[in-house]
Amino acid sequence: MSRIGKQTIPVPSGVKVEIKGTLVRVTGPKGNLERNIHPRMSIQQEDSGLCVIPGGSSKLDRSLHGLTRTLIANMVDGVTNGFEKALEVSGLGYRMQKKGENLVMNLGFTHPVEITPPDGISFEVEGKILKVKGIDKEKVGQMAADIRVLRKPEPYKGTGIRYVGEYVRRKQGKTTAK
Description:
Elements: H1 3-6, E1 16-20, E2 23-28, E3 31-36, E4 41-45, E5 50-54, H2 59-80, E6 83-90, E7 95-99, E8 102-106, E9 113-115, E10 121-126, E11 129-134, H3 137-150, E12 160-163
Antiparallel strand pairs: 1-2, 2-3, 4-5, 6-11, 6-12, 7-8, 8-9, 10-11
C-alpha cells in the first residue's frame, strides 16, 4: 500500500466535500473544484477527514492510491488557501504589464505577447516578478509553464523567464585564440 495514500486528508472547517460515485466536489471559501476519480478507488468520509481506499492490491491500484489522495488533498488546500507560482523576467527591454485581466509581455519579439488567463487564474505583476494565482494547482502550474516557455532562460546571458529561486547553470562564452 502507498504510504501517502494511507494518510487521512484533513478537512478544515468551512470546507464541504461531496462524494457522488466517482465525482468528488470540494467547496470552500475561495471557490469550488470537482474531479472524477478512478473507479477502482473509493473515498470514505470520517470525522477526522477523508480516507482513500484502493479497490485491490494490483500495481495499478497501488499507483492510483497515492495519486488520488494527493489530488484530493490539493483540491482541499486550493479551496482553502489557493496556489501561487512566481516567475521572474530578466533581460534588457523585457517587461510585462497587466491590461485589464490580460497580461502583456515584451520579450524581444517584433510584437508584444498578450496572454488571456483561463477561468480561475489571475495574474499579479510586481516589477519584474509575475505571480500566477488560482485554486487549481494543475492549472496554476500549467499556466506558469506556458508563460516560461515563451522565453526560457538561456545559459550564456541568463536572460529569459524563470521561476523565482530557479538556478540557471551558466556557460562560458567563446574565448579568443591567441
